[in-house]
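User: Quick sanity check before I run a bigger batch. Here is a single chain. Can you write out its predicted 3D structure?
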Amino acid sequence: MRPTDEYGERRGGILERLLVRGALLLVTVAVIGALAGWTKRVGAADHVVAPDTRLLAREMGSLEQQLQATRGEVELVKLQLERANAIMANSAKYRIPADLAEDIYDIALSEGIDPALGFQLVKVESGFKANARSSMKAFGYTQLQLPTARFYDPDVTAGQLFDRETNLRIGFRFLRDLLEQFDHDMQLALVAYNRGPAKVAGILADGGDPTNGYAEVVMEGYQPLGSTAAAE
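Assistant: Done. Predicted structure follows.
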């Protein structure tokens, strides 16, 4: 792990602990405030010997709502921190601009693809070059051929496949569909991305082996999103 990655993870952990402590402090203050209010009411009226259960129920319900809202805010900030850390880590790992790492991460998630797999696919297909093109007339970051792209967007042009968002979105959607088609067998889905799903399906139907080494190249060093955190 690079020193910058270690520093980012340590900083994220410290921020997360501070957020949790802050949430607990807010709830504690709210509870103390509620109890103080009840004590004042008891002191002001000597005939009161027990708290109004309906009033306490309302106050406790309000406290529970505040606690749930605080927990939700903490979880949201944690997700934002995880996203920021992942974007910075992949920007450093692949030596690409942060805005490109951000788009790959966000678009992969929105299309149901593990961002870690998305980064590996773009690395192997285009070396993160927006203007990449192959002798097979494949274009852009994910090396889409026009017929494939037009299956998802009938009006798309070859020139539009050099647009970052268009290319990443269609490429990742294509990979997601291949994963579903091949029962989430990542190796077969990746081979189908490289060789074409019809060809791979035909080889399998004939009892053959369609693998050609492409999947192994994409998956080399691949770690699913969250696997490092889970291991720790």
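Residues 42-46, 228-232 have pLDDT under 50 and may be disordered.

User: Great, the batch can go ahead then.
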